[in-house]
Amino acid sequence: MGETLYPSGPWTGFYNYSPSDKHRMDLNLEFCRGRLTGCGIDDVGRFLVKGRYDASAGECHWIKTYPGSHDVFYQGFREGKGIWGTWNIEFGAGGHGGFHIWPRCSSDADAVAENERAPIEIVQPQKVCAPTHVAVALKCPVRPRAVEPLGPHVS
User: Which of 58, 104, 109, 121 is surrounded by the fewest CB atoms within 10 Å?
Assistant: First the structure.
């Protein structure tokens, strides 16, 4: 595994409560020297992301914070077409489930590949992800707040 598997920029995906109950997420993530920060939006609302990743082990964990509301703890692994893992809420009735996110630029390439019905003989130039300094439509509304270590449930 390497740093190239954690491209900064727009990501998309879903979280779920069960395999058939998917809820879309759109994120703008920054991966830098083992730290993960960003923001996003889903059907609950806007959120901030702050956590860590280990490129050599392919592991990552973060806290998704809905400002003024609650935190959701994520733990995942980078493999195949994105990051897969679990999420957990520790307050009230709580909640938990799974998630899958992937870089938006790769989802575009995958969609094209999945729609091709026959092989083509002409080699197409490979799509390159936008550099991290390019602005994306999803803008972070506020800076992430300081977050204490993630605690015993996520290492």
Answer: 121
